[in-house]
């Protein structure tokens, strides 16, 4: 995967903003190298970004408003409701918008609207009036408690289960930083993990809050701010570069999100010869995004990595983005 920062830039975390400092060539940092890790540091555009729900012409309508930097926005209208909560999964209308003062105005291909505070009003291309109100969804598995016998990997108290486990305090909460790898290896299990993505409105694609859940340090379930995007095989919920998610269930950045991953490792005979492929079922924020997906080999750069009966550690990929984790536990299968 590509590097996310110019090699001559240094960065520091201050007041919830990751600031890239001038490099050795003396160049000044660009605004698009500011990365907010707290709501307080995210600025006015973050208050506009989010999910909106209401009706148009008596039918339910939703919109996901995505910040694109410098007061520019993309509104994705979704008839029926939000992804995983009423939307039909196919119809989406993308409309550009621009903020001016307290109002963000949208207008394109017959759709027009104005967003002020938590209220988004306008008309569809069919002339139906809509009124949408900002909503904040919480995953139904947020705060899930580990069952009896589960392996608690991180509950905020210590990093004893991890190599390179580092804790950072974000908005008063002790969070596990990227780059940590479990000391133990595991084979098949149910994994619960909660994560929080940074707000990077100027970034695009793989530069927008990138990390990954690496099972056996071999198979990656992508972690990325894909909010409002058409899902691809390198977006959140994907078996990285192999299988795209069934649905883009990503919530806005700077909100806690959940992965619940059911992993069945590959099988081997007594001589260590592989006899069956791995399989994975993934729920992102409670929505099914991988359904018993067959996993034939490692993903990304690990495609040719040798699979073993012993499984491997869990790694939270460090992709030079301030992604944070909490409430990480797994229940091993017998």
CATH class descriptor of the largest domain: Mainly Beta
User: Percentage of helical residues?
Assistant: under 10%
Q: Segments where pLDDT lies below 50 for 5+ residues?
A: 1-14, 19-30
Q: H/E series, N to C?
A: EEEHHEEEEEEEEEEEEEEEEEEEEEEE
Strand content range: 35-45%
Shape: globular
Report strand order across the widest sheet: 4-5-6-7-8-9-10-11
Question: With helices defined by DSSP (H or I, 4 residues minimum), what is the helix count?
Answer: 2
Radius of gyration, in Å, reads 21 Å
Give the total of beta strands. Answer: 26
Domain tally: 3
Structure description:
With 334 residues, this protein is an all-beta fold. The protein has three domains: 10-36, no CATH class; 46-135, Calycin beta-barrel core domain (Lipocalin, Beta Barrel), CATH 2.40.128; 151-332, Jelly Rolls. Helices cover 3% and strands 43% of the residues. The protein has helices spanning 39-42, 44-48; strands at 10-14, 17-21, 34-36, 50-56, 59-67, 72-79, 93-100, 103-108, 111-116, 119-123, 129-135, 151-154, 162-163, 167-170, 173-177, 181-182, 189-196, 211-215, 219-223, 256-264, 267-268, 274-276, 278-284, 287-295, 315-316, 324-332. The strands form six sheets. It has an eight-stranded antiparallel barrel with strand order 4-5-6-7-8-9-10-11. The longest helix is centred in the N-terminal third of the chain and has 5 residues, at 44-48. The two termini are 35 Å apart. The model is unreliable at 1-14 and 19-30 (pLDDT under 50).
